[in-house]
C-alpha cells in the first residue's frame, strides 16, 4: 500500500505521475465519466469513481488515493474534511490543494465547481495537470448543460406555441400564419414573450372548456 | 444600494439572515442581499475565504478554526452578529433507545443518566465483541461534534476510542439512521424532526439540555472585509437585529416563517414549531415545549459573546484539534466582535437568562474563559474511564 516518500528533487515526471491514484467523488455520474475519460486519455491509469455516498471514508481508505476530486454540489465534501482530523486512522493525511500562493487556481476550481485534495507531501506541480484538466472538463460540462437546457427550453416553447396556435385557429377560424401573427402582436403590446402568451391562451382555453 | 452576496445552508438557524434579505430589513438599510444556497460548510468556508461571498451563515466553531488555521489555510474570519443560540438535538435509533432504557438508572431525559447508560451499552458491546456504535455529526469543527463528545465523556465514554464519530451531511442523517449506518446523530433543525416524523428516530436530548446557552451559527465575514467596509457591516448588523426581533416576536413569527420555509424547503408549520420550541420527541410520543430550544431574537442572543469564542477554543483543545496557548486563545476570543455589534446599535442590557458562566453545561465545573487549562484539567482528572472495564 505504501508508496515511497515523495522526493524533493526533480521528478522524472510522466511515468510516475501516471501511477497517481485518483478518486472522483461526484453527484453527477455523467460528469464523473467525462472527467474519468479525460484523465485516462491524459495517461492517468488509476482513476476510480465513488458514487455511493455511504461509507465514503471507508471507501477512500480502502482506495488509498493520492488525489481526490470532488464536485462542489456534493454535500459529502464535509465528510472528506474529517480526513484532516483523523491522521491517527489514515496513515497518510490528505491536505487540501490550496495554500495562500494558490489563489488563482483554487478560484478557477471553485468557479468550475470542483475541489481537490492531495496527499500531504505530494508536490503541487505533479498534480497541476490533473487540476487543470478537471477544471476544463467541469467547465465544458456546464457549457454543455447550459446548451442542453436552452435547447430543451426552446423545444418546450415551440410545443406551447404550436398548441396555442391550434386553439386560436379552431376558436377564431384563423389560418396558422394569422394565429401566430396575433400572438406575436399581443406579445409585443404586452412586452411579453410569445411563449408566455401561448401559455396564457392554453390556460384560458382550459378554463373555458 | 450596496449589493452583498451571502452564503447559507438551508437550516432553520439561518432564519435571521433569510428574513433580513426577504422582508425588507436589508433594503431599509440600503443593502441588497443576494442569498447563495450551499450544500456543505466546506464550500461556505472556501467561498468566504476567497471573497466569492461577502459574508456567510457559518457554524460558530469554524470561525475560530479558520482564524487559527486549523485543518486548512489560515484566513482571519470574524463575526459581528450571532444568528442563533442552541437548536441542535441528539437523535438515536429505536434500538439504541431500547438498549439505553435497559441500562438506565433513573430517567433517560436526564443527560447524566443517559450518558452513564451509554457507557454501559458501550462496555456491553465491547464485552460481546460487537462493533462500536456510530454517531453522525455535521463537521469536525461544530457544536454537533462537541455536544456529542461532551455528553458521552460525562458518562465515561471516550469519544475517540469507544465509539465512532462520522461526518454526515444533514440531509443524509435520517436515512443513515434508518439503514443502521449510524446509531445516533447530533444535528440542527429541521433534521431531527425529519427523522422523528419518518418514524426512524427518538430525540434523546435537545441541545440546551447539554449546554444551556451556546452559539450555534454566526454571520461570518473576513476580518479584512469588515475593516474595509465598516458602514456596510454596521448596516448589515442593524438589518439582522431587526429581522431577529421579528422572528423572536410571537405576534410576527407566522409572517417570518412564510419567508423562511421556502428558502429551506420545509413547511412553514415545521419552521414555526422549531422556532416556538415545540419538539415532538418520538413517533406518536411526547412533545417537549421549551422556548430555549433555539434562541434567535431576545435574550441578547444576537450579540457575539467572547466567552463563547473561548468555549469553542477550549473544545478544540479538549479534543486534540488545537494546542493550548495564550496566543491562540487571544486570537480566538477577538474573532467574536462585540465591539462592531455595539458600535452599530449601542449595547443591549444584559439578559437575566444568561447562565453564570455563560454556557451552563450539564456536567463538569463552571467554565472559566480566563483559565482554560484548569477547566480542562478537571475533565482529565475525572476517574470515569476505569469504570468502563468493571462493567460486564
List its salient traits.
heterodimer; A: 209 residues; alpha/beta; D-Maltodextrin-Binding Protein, domain 2; Arc Repressor Mutant, subunit A; 2 domains; 5-stranded mixed sheet; 5 strands; 58% helix; elongated; disordered N terminus; B: 392 residues; 6-stranded mixed sheet; 19 helices; 13 strands; 17% strand; disordered C terminus
**Low-confidence runs of at least 5 consecutive residues of chain A:** 1-15, 87-91
Which bin fits the share of residues in helices of chain B?
A: 40-55%
**What does the largest sheet of chain B look like?**
6 strands, mixed
Would you list the SSEs of chain A in sequence order as H and E?
A: HEHEHEHEHEHHH
CATH architecture of the largest domain in chain B: 3-Layer(aba) Sandwich
Number of strand segments of chain B: 13
Q: Would you state the CATH class of the largest domain in chain A?
A: Alpha Beta
Question: Could you please say which CATH topology of the largest domain in chain B applies here?
Answer: D-Maltodextrin-Binding Protein, domain 2
**What's the Cα radius of gyration of chain B?**
20 Å
CATH-assigned fold name of the largest domain in chain A: D-Maltodextrin-Binding Protein, domain 2
**In the CATH classification, which architecture of the largest domain in chain A applies?**
3-Layer(aba) Sandwich
Question: In CATH, what is the homologous superfamily of the largest domain in chain B?
Answer: Periplasmic binding protein-like II
What does this structure look like?
The complex is a heterodimer of chains A (209) and B (392). By secondary structure, chain A is an alpha/beta fold. Chain A is built from eight helices and five strands, in the order H-E-H-E-H-E-H-E-H-E-H-H-H. Chain A folds into two domains: 16-146, D-Maltodextrin-Binding Protein, domain 2, CATH 3.40.190; 149-208, Orthogonal Bundle (Arc Repressor Mutant, subunit A). Chain A has helices at 14-17, 29-41, 56-63, 77-85, 103-112, 124-172, 176-189, 194-208; strands at residues 22-25, 47-50, 67-71, 94-96, 114-119. The longest helix of chain A has 49 residues, at 124-172. With 392 residues, chain B is of the alpha/beta class. Chain B has two domains: 2-84 and 215-266 and 297-351, Periplasmic binding protein-like II (D-Maltodextrin-Binding Protein, domain 2), CATH 3.40.190.10; 89-212 and 373-390, Periplasmic binding protein-like II (D-Maltodextrin-Binding Protein, domain 2, 3-Layer(aba) Sandwich). Chain B has helices at residues 15-22, 25-28, 41-50, 60-68, 94-103, 111-128, 143-154, 173-179, 191-197, 207-210, 223-228, 230-248, 250-264, 268-276, 306-318, 326-333, 338-345, 372-381, 384-390, and strands at residues 2-8, 31-37, 55-59, 77-86, 89-92, 134-137, 164-167, 184-187, 202-206, 215-222, 278-280, 287-289, 294-295. In chain B, helix 1 crosses helix 12 (230-248). The longest helix of chain B is centred in the middle third of the chain and has 19 residues, at 230-248. Chain B starts with a strand and ends with a helix. The chains are: A alpha/beta (209), B alpha/beta (392). The A-B interface holds A 53-55, 57, 72-82, 84-85, 96, 98-100, 103, 106-107, 110, 115 and B 39-43, 46-47, 50, 52, 71-73, 138-140, 166-172, 176, 179, 181, 321.
Amino acid at each position: 500500500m505504501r508508496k515511497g516518500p515523495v522526493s524533493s528533487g526533480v521528478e522524472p515526471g510522466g511515468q510516475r505521475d501516471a501511477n497517481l491514484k485518483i478518486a472522483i467523488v461526484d453527484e453527477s455520474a455523467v460528469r464523473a465519466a467525462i472527467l474519468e475519460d479525460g484523465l485516462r486519455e491524459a495517461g492517468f491509469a488509476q482513476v476510480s469513481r465513488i458514487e455511493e455516498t455511504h461509507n465514503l471514508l471507508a471507501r477512500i481508505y480502502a482506495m488509498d488515493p493520492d488525489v481526490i476530486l470532488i464536485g462542489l454540489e456534493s454535500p459529502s465534501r464535509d465528510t472528506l474534511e474529517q480526513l484532516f482530523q483523523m491522521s491517527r486512522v489514515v496513515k497518510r493525511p490528505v491536505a487540501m490543494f490550496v495554500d495562500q500562493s494558490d489563489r488563482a487556481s483554487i478560484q478557477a476550481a471553485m468557479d468550475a465547481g470542483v475541489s481537490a485534495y492531495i496527499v500531504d507531501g505530494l508536490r503541487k506541480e505533479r498534480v497541476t495537470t490533473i487540476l487543470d484538466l478537471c477544471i476544463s472538463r467541469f467547465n465544458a460540462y456546464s457549457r454543455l448543460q447550459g446548451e442542453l437546457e436552452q435547447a430543451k427550453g426552446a423545444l418546450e416553447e415551440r410545443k406551447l406555441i404550436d398548441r396555442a396556435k391550434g386553439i386560436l385557429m379552431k376558436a377564431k377560424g384563423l389560418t396558422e400564419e394569422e394565429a401566430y401573427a396575433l400572438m406575436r402582436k399581443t406579445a409585443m403590446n404586452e412586452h411579453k414573450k410569445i411563449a408566455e402568451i401561448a401559455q396564457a391562451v392554453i390556460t384560458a382555453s382550459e378554463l373555458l372548456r | 444600494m450596496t449589493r452583498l452576496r451571502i452564503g447559507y445552508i438551508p437550516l432553520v438557524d439561518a432564519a435571521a439572515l433569510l428574513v433580513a434579505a426577504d422582508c425588507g430589513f436589508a433594503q431599509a438599510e440600503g443593502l441588497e442581499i443576494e442569498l447563495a444556497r450551499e450544500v456543505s460548510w466546506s464550500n461556505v468556508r472556501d467561498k468566504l475565504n476567497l471573497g466569492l461571498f461577502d459574508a456567510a451563515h457559518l457554524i460558530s466553531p469554524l470561525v475560530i478554526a479558520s482564524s487559527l488555521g486549523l485543518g486548512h489555510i489560515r484566513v482571519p474570519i470574524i463575526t459581528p452578529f450571532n444568528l442563533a443560540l442552541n437548536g441542535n438535538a441528539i437523535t438515536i435509533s429505536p434500538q439504541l433507545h431500547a438498549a439505553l432504557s435497559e441500562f438506565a438508572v433513573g430517567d433517560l431525559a436526564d443527560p447524566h443518566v443517559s450518558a452513564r447508560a451509554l457507557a454501559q451499552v458501550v462496555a456491553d458491546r465491547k464485552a460481546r465483541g460487537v462493533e462500536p456504535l456510530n454517531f453522525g455529526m455535521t463537521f469536525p469543527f461544530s457544536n454537533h461534534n462537541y455536544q456529542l463528545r461532551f455528553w458521552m465523556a460525562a458518562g465515561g465514554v471516550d469519544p475517540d476510542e469507544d465509539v465512532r464519530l462520522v461526518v454526515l451531511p444533514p440531509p443524509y442523517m435520517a436515512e443513515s439512521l434508518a439503514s443502521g449506518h449510524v446509531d445516533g446523530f447530533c444535528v440542527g433543525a429541521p433534521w431531527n424532526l425529519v427523522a422523528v416524523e419518518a418514524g426512524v428516530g427518538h430525540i434523546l436530548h435537545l441541545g440546551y439540555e447539554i449546554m444551556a446557552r451556546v452559539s450555534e451559527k454566526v454571520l461570518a465575514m473576513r476580518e479584512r472585509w469588515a475593516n474595509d467596509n465598516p458602514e456596510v457591516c454596521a448596516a448589515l448588523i442593524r438589518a439582522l437585529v431587526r429581522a431577529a426581533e421579528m422572528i423572536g416576536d410571537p405576534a410576527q413569527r407566522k409572517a417570518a416563517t412564510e419567508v423562511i420555509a421556502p428558502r429551506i424547503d420545509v413547511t412553514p408549520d415545521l419552521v414555526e414549531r422549531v422556532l416556538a420550541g415545540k419538539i415532538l420527541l418520538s413517533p406518536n410520543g411526547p412533545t417537549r415545549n421549551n422556548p430555549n430550544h433555539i434562541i434567535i431574537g431576545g435574550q441578547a442572543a444576537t450579540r457575539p459573546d467572547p466567552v463563547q469564542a473561548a468555549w469553542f477554543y477550549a473544545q478544540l483543545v479538549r479534543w486534540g484539534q488545537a494546542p493550548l496557548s495564550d496566543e491562540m486563545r487571544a486570537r480566538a476570543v477577538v474573532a467574536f466582535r462585540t465591539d462592531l455589534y455595539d458600535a452599530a446599535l449601542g449595547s443591549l442590557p444584559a439578559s437575566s437568562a444568561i447562565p453564570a458562566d455563560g454556557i451552563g453545561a450539564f456536567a463538569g465545573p463552571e467554565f472559566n474563559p480566563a483559565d482554560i487549562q484548569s477547566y480542562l484539567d478537571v475533565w482529565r482528572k475525572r476517574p470515569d474511564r476505569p469504570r468502563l472495564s468493571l462493567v460486564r
